[in-house]
Design goal:
The protein is an alpha+beta fold. β4 (63-68) and β5 form a beta hairpin. It has helices at residues 22-32, 48-59, 86-91, 97-106, 125-133, 164-175, 190-201, 233-245, 261-269, 307-315, 334-339, 370-382, 393-396, 402-408, 419-429; strands at residues 3-7, 13-17, 38-42, 63-68, 71-75, 108-112, 137-141, 144-148, 156-158, 180-184, 205-207, 214-217, 225-228, 249-253, 273-276, 280-284, 294-295, 320-324, 344-348, 351-355, 364-366, 386-390, 412-416. Helix content is 33%, strand content 24%. Bound molecules: uridine-diphosphate-N-acetylglucosamine.
Amino acid sequence: MEQYIIKGGCPLHGEVEIGGAKNAALGILAASIMTDETVLIENLPDVRDINVMLEAMSEIGVKVERLSPHIVKINGSGIGDVSIEYEYIKKIRASYYLLGALLGKYKKAEVPLPGGCNIGSRPIDLHLKGFKALGAKVSIVNGSICAVAPQLRGRHIFLDTVSVGATINIMMAASMAEGRTVIENCAKEPHVVDVANFLNSMGANIKGAGTDIIRINGVEKLHATEYSIIPDQIEAGTFMFAAACTHGDIVVKNVIPKHLEATISKLLEIGCEVEEFDTAVRVIAPERLSAANVKTLPYPGYPTDMQPQIAVALAMAEGTSIVTESIFENRFKYLDELARMGAVSKVEGNTAIISGVKGLMGARVSAPDLRAGAALVIAGLAAEGITTIDDIVYIQRGYENFEGKLQQLGARIEKVSSDREARKFLLNVG
Ligand code: UD1
């Protein structure tokens, strides 16, 4: 089993290059099968979730040609099966995007119902409500969602909750429905816009992505395209908080600063200096961070996927902070791991009260999920002494070469898979 081993206390310095957005890529890969022509996708992140998604697609007959780690050619003309195996949905929830894509193209799809996950129960009722509104018959048979529609017809759909997944899934199906669909109370995340732009580049007619209302005029066919995925705002934000927590000074390159506004505003509030350039941001951290309150919200609010990372900063800040999680019901589990490193916090419902301590100390901890795992790495980089992180497979789901990029910034971190490798690292770092 691979682990990260970290010797903390080393400020990060230098430059880091951000990859393509994992969450945009998942939607775009699903959408790419909606044409029989060949699609070329660039700036694909080479992370576990993406590789699982590509496997799920290959399994149903999609031709996947990886030209390089970050470029893939997709051809969906040979799809022979519209049902996805449970094995894939278990590994990656977002393979449910294939439901909207297959339903749009073939008017039928079968995808296992995803269960809950480590951050809470995650229903997909709104996705199904949208498909039903478009005319699909949706039933649950032996744990799978079966959606069939003799014909999909555009409709007016109101989403009761702002949902990224439902917005993208319904938008895909509606792209190939007959007539006009209006989706209200949409998610406005940059990756919703990226999937819409991608579909439009394939000949779809989607307007309003990035606002509350998306209007779609269905088309009969989609065609070939070449498309480059937007940079990953969460990977960028994670490095920005790593700099903040290690009293570092780094330049995060290949980003869209506009997508980072909520993160930048919190970094300023906790005492960092942030310089914005056209496609880069520089974060300069103070000697001691200050406390702040934060509430996660749909975009453009502060992202829930950046909640554990800011919590690490607040755990080391001067004063008491309140973190309110308004998107997921159980996203504070990692605070128990952080407590093992000396953090002091108390969770009440969807709120965590964090009393800042002067410094964290190294410990052996486990990554409970993707973003919390990344936050524990940040904690390890900031802590005094040695931190070992188990279950890093979660982190690898969404961060490409995380340890390599951190090493480039001067961090003393190694991915090890045996005691021998761990001992070697410890000898090297002294
Ligand atoms: C996406 C992101 C995830 C991020 C989340 C919120 C991907 C692949 N994942 O997840 O990293 O943390 O957005 O920004 O892009 N809900 C319902 N019914 C539904 C759908 C959602 O009640 O049918 C609720 C969820 O339980 C949650 C809220 O809506 O409380 C938002 O979830 P949603 O935006 O759908 O998250 P995901 O798309 O799953």
